[in-house]
Prior knowledge:
The complex is a heterotetramer of chains A (220), B (477), C (662) and D (310). Chain A has 220 residues and is mostly helical. Chain A has helices at residues 2-25, 29-54, 58-85, 97-115, 126-146, 150-170, 177-197, 212-215. Chain A is built from eight helices and no strands. The radius of gyration of chain A is 18 Å and the shape is globular. By secondary structure, chain B is mainly α. Chain B has a domain at 290-477. Chain B has 19 helices and no strands. The longest helix of chain B has 33 residues, at 144-176. By secondary structure, chain C is mainly α. Chain C is 71% helix and 6% strand. Chain C is globular. The model of chain C has no long low-confidence stretch (mean pLDDT 88). In chain C, the strands form three sheets. A three-stranded antiparallel β-sheet of chain C has the order 3-4-5, with helices on one face. Classes of the chains: A mainly alpha (220), B mainly alpha (477), C mainly alpha (662), D mainly alpha (310). Chains in contact: A-B, A-C, B-C, C-D. The interface between A and B is large, with 50 and 47 residues.
Amino acid sequence: xxxxxxDVAHLLAGTTLLMSFALLYQRRLSAVVKxxxxxxxxxxxxxxxxxxxxxxxxxxxxxxxxxxLKTVVxxxxxxxxxRRLGIHRTIETALGIAPTMLAGVALVALTILxxxxxxxxxxxxxxxxxxxxxAVVLLGLLMMITRRNAVTQVIGFMSLENGLIxxxxxxxxxxxxxxxxxxxxxxxxxxxFGVFFFQIRERFDSLELHYLEDVRDRGP
Amino acid sequence: MTILALLGLPVAAAALLALLxxxxxxxxxNIAASGLTFCVAIAVALGERTADALFFVDDLNxxxxxxxxxxxxxxxxxxxxxxxxxxxHRQLAPWQIRFYHxxxxxxxxxxxxxxxxxxxxxxxxxxxxxxxxxxxxxxLYRTKPAIEAAWxxxxxxxxxxxxxxxxxxxxxxAAQTAQFHGIEAMAWTELQLRAPRFDGxxxxxxxxxxxxxxxxxxxxxxxxxxxxxxxxEGPTPISAVLSGLLLNVALYALLRFKMLLGxxxxxxxxGPLMIALGLLSLLVAGAALYRRRDVKKLxxxxxxxxxxxxxxxxxxxxxxxxxAGLLHMAMHALTKSAIFFAVGSLAQSRGSQEIRALSGAxxxxxxxxxxxxxxxxxxxxxxPFGIFAAExxxxxxxxxxxxxxxxxxxxxxxxAFGGLIRHLQSIAFAPAPEGAKDLRVAPPLPLYxxxxxxxxxxxxxxxxxxxxxxxxxxxxx
Amino acid sequence: xxxxxxxADLGFLVLAGLGLAAIRLGARATAIVCLGSTILCAANxxxxxxxxxxxxxxxxRLPIGFALGWTVLALDPLSAYFLLVVNLVGAIVSLYAVxxxxxxxxxxxxxxxxxxxxxxxxxxxxxxxxxxFLVAWEFMSLASWALIxxxxxxxxxxxxxxxxxxxxxxxxxxxxxxxxxxxGGLDRYDFAAxxxxxxxxxxxxVLVxxxxxxxxxxxxxxxxxxxxxxAAxxxVSALMSGAMTKIALYAVIRLVFDLNGQPAWWWGGILLVxxxxxxxxGVLFALIERDMKTALAWxxxxxxxxxxxxxxxxxxxxxxxxxxxxxxxxxAALVHALNHALFKSLSFMGAGAVLHATGSRDLxxxxxLGRVMPQTGWVFLVAALALAAxxxxxxxxxxxxxxxxxxxxxxxxxxxxxxxxxxxxxAFxxxAALAAAxxxxxxxxxxLGRPRSPAAAAAHEVAPxxxxxMAVAAGLCLLFGLFPAAVAGLAGPAVVQMLGxxxxxxxxxxxxxxxxxxxxxxxTALxxxxxxxxxxxxxxxxxxxxxxxxRAPAWDCGFPDIRPATQYTAASLTQPLRRVFGRTAFVARxxxxxxxxxxxxxxxxxxxxxxxxxxxxxxxxxxxxxxVATQAARLQQLTIRGHLMLMFAALVILLAAVVVSR
Amino acid sequence: xxxxAQVVHLVLIVALAPAITGLVRWVKARALGRAGPAPWxxxxxxxRLMLKTPIVAETxxxxxxxxxxxxxxxxxxxxxxxxxxxxxxxxxxxxxxxVLAGILxxxxFLLxxxxxxxxxxxGGIGSSRExxxxxxxxxxxxxxxxxxxxLVHTTSxxxxxxxxxxxxxxxxxxxxxxxxxxxIVAVAxxxxxxxxxxxxxxxxxxxxxxxxxxxxxxxxxxxxLASMLKLVVWLSLIQALFVPFGMAGAALTxxxxxxxxxxxxxxxxxxxxxxxxxxxxxVFRYPEFLGGAVVLGMLAxxxxxxxxxx
Lengths: 220, 477, 662, 310
């Protein structure tokens, strides 16, 4: 049982990381949303699997939230935003795809170096989970800073959050996971609301309110 | 029990104030609630040190609870006058004032929750809640710059807070390595006891994320970008509590984690990381003080600088430097909010917060102007004020441990001083701009109250207080 | 005694409170407050004198101030001596202020900081722990900053105040680090504890030189001084120049001689050379500055250089184990400190009287004041003679001792110092001669000749209290000039305290003569002889030349133009010297605009003087700060994505640091 | 006994001073092939001036009339401090070379003030140049003092003379340099050629004469006498420092006084011949001339170190 639990969890975690790379790889907005939905699904599965393995019912709730929000609601909402605001379908990158991938690999290498000193097998899965979650978090952040479209940045942020959930559900008996994921969802909701409300088409920092020039730090 | 009262009071007040119509009743309710909270905070600070599953009180958080409740109370006094002016001059609609009051109490509730929470997750939730409430308050004026500032604040702190959550989860994971599970494994009191057996390597990674996450909230360079804008665009009382309270609470969170790592023999020394960020904050913010046009941005950079100093102090560690850090936290909170009180009143009188537009303060508003002069001299670290005492301890402690660091600190302090004094002189003493009209503003009493406290702390700290602070400094290791 | 001094010091705070109340009470209350500080200062001076008479070490420990320790106040000969300096000046200047403040707008603006300034000045010598020392030190800076800002509408005053305060704080921070180094991890900052572990650290020495030197005006840390002194009201300039710079020197002596421990001989060499450079730079600028008070400020720099040189010499001797010579040099420094305090405050009060009477400090607008304000004229002549370091005034005594110490320097074992000595001696001699030229210029242009402006012609004598204060100061200058040994005697206990019994200055009391080796300076005897000879000359002239003098227009070699503009001006008087030194210490650019032949326009001579040190150091620093500030400001201009990038970078760097450090 | 010697000294120098100046002028005239006034002509000049009505500029103040007497008294005092036929003089014990320099400085200071008091252009010229010369001469003078002090370990004039009499140090490079330096200083201080021409009538080149241009009668007499006395001070200073031979100590010797007068006369003749041999310098070459003296003074000290060992 332990072997299977380990293998499945590892597989799901690995898939999440793969999806993070896939997110970085995509050039088209709709594809990014799709990949993100898949990553949400994987996370939901991972949570559900852990709920099953640890016999922790509250993790089912987490899985349900992840599935509901990340696989259904948010992708739909994002697609609507894209349509409504007429956002370009291609992604404007600050750093080319290939360099981004290279940077991603470097980050993964960094995470490996970081987790190496952790005593192996001291607890179930700890080292592997940390390595992958760390990589997902860093890749999410990388996506936020190398992609210019607001929608991709929001997705980067949520992918970062996926890393958190991966870490949180992967360990035995982490309390308050549900509470925290709810609190986090509020944050995300605000974010999406903000993007929608301020009609942010391209970037976070151009609120498209035509006053940018005279407000951004009126000082020099 | 008192803890519940401490947290329940602002929550209830927030709900009540959201419903209470009218500026007068709202302001009175806000003051009353804050005053009561302050009284309860005194009771908590004087009362016994308790710990249960969710909440606890020890010397460290009792100190900050007292400080937070006090500054919250005085700021509520100030904001009554501030909002009165805004209301008279139709800057804010009644619903906005009502919203402000509710949010003020909600913010106080999150601050106190973050301080009293005996759970790393709960504390995180509280800090996130504080982000949301303050983001809403920053955008209170609904002007475009205000909304932009709130947005920037929200995004940067959102990412920061996400990283902090990751760090929090990692700490729990580290606890796992010591076969330590469940809700206790997130309680400060328990974690602190068992930290020596945790896997140090995980704690290291966790601390980096926590440092970046809560460091964003504390406004450390290079994570500080949200801070000046948020301070500048929000209502001035909010600038005062952001600088005086929120930054301290974020640092408090860092301190707690630092203590955990300190207890673990395998874990990395956290000092150098904090020293690096603190020094960077001090130097960069000090340099950034020079080219400022907006007075509130100016003083928010000064807040960054002081957070840098406090972080440095705790990074150096040891009884003297920790004492300095603790004293500095309180002194900075009091002085900086006093400065915002003065600056807010002046800006209301002139209808502008451009430094150039504010000149002639001493000639036109002697009471507020001199108050500002004294407060800025105090924040700049001149005696006989409390910050000088704290900086004295910090520098001597730094000299003792790493002389080169003392040199860097001194350069940073001087740089910041030069920037502050340049603007202070032009605000306070340069002749008022041609045709400047001044609306009447009453000198804010909390300004003088804070200054009196800061002065008193510089001249004489009562031995019980010194003993208390020494004890906390000892706890911090 | 110490309790009395401490209580009197608190009295200044009370007076400051009264001064605040005097906002509404008007001129009478102002005068009362100033009189109050006169009395307090006089009482303090008397107590300090008594403490010097019966040298003893007293200590008070108060449970206030520093949170992690006690406030320790102590009175020993060194602090008593400097308290005497401060309070002599303080008493005289307060008396002057009684009338000077009369009729000024917003008296509280000056009255309150003035009392606080006196408080700080009195507290520094008493403070015997690092914390209260620095508190008092900064208090002094702050109060004087407020005084410089007494007329804030003047942009020059604001600029001066800003530069002053920043440099003062820089100095205080340097002292703070020095104290931290001296405490060496003991976490005890009272002087007794510091003294117990004297390590003789070079870094401390350098920091003290920077910290106290910036307050004293040691070149190249002098930039604030010529800006701040003229900007402050005259009685404040007197106090700053007379007392505050001395307190800075007190800090040097206290920290270097007393607390830091055995110096290496070559430290003294550094200070000696710095002192000589300071003296030269100061006097050269005093020679060309046309603003009276600025010229006096430069002269203060010069005298600080002389005192610093003497201190350096004393250190070199002490480091080479020559206690007696070290005592001689330290005596020179202390004697000159007291004397300079007196004559420089007298000069500033005189300049203040001129400003009061004519509304101008510009030498080119003055002239002939000796006839319209004769009493001020005579006291200023005394000041000028003292400034010129001429016998029998008190400015000479200290320089005489310094030269004796320099000559004693041939006993130094180090060849390097021996080579430096003649150069330094030449520099100090040049300084003395140039100081005489500068003093001659100040007095000669302002008080002699014919008035160069209507304001100068219409000047009137100043209020009696101001004249009284100046007369007291002038009287003391004469007294200390004629009895230089008395001053050396006062300095004696402090010298012995710093350097041990063999260093006691040799003072032969019967003739009140200063003795160094087998050389003596008996001012009284020479003055009596000079007076007798003058009497003989006068009698002989009266006997042999019976014709009464007749008044007539000046002949001037038949040159008929009697317009005041034909007189020599302040600029032209020292033009030859300016030419000689115009390419070294400063950059003097002269240009003459001659009109075309036939054009009736007057020719114009313009003179621009720039301080090389200002351009070379201060402007560079300013530019550097501007550059850094621009970069730091640019950080704020980034987009949100840019800020996120910074956050990401910080995260990755810290993570990498964690990896590397394991 | 010493007091009597002092009084004799005081009277002697003031009586001799005009004669010495007269001697210089006479020798100069002779050397130039003119007959020249008799050496005692200065006495007549002084008497004539004393009998004239002094005219005082209207624009001048009280200092103006006081300065001639004060200045004369100061120089007389300075003269009294320099060992002459004996070094055991009370006033010479009361001060040293540095005090002497100070008193001479005082007299210069007073005269420069007097030049400014009338508010005339020429007075200013004189004062201005006098101040420059004084400023440049003083370091040279002090370096000479320094050289001597290194050798004798004191700046007290009687002690120096006594030392050189008791243990002649012989000819030394450094003393030679110091001598040249002090001669240059003396030339400058006394306003002799090449620095200043006491006999000039060209106002623009005047220094000392320009300063006192407006003085007349007894005031001018006092100033003239003072400058004559000053020459004696410098001549006796040079003899006291460099050729103190024949000088008496505590016990007076019969030859001391004639030897002193002879040394003064020899100095005067030497000065006159020196002046005949060179031309007046431009004002802006003074720094080079006096700077040479400073360098010589410094070299003198350093050579002393060399010969003494460090």
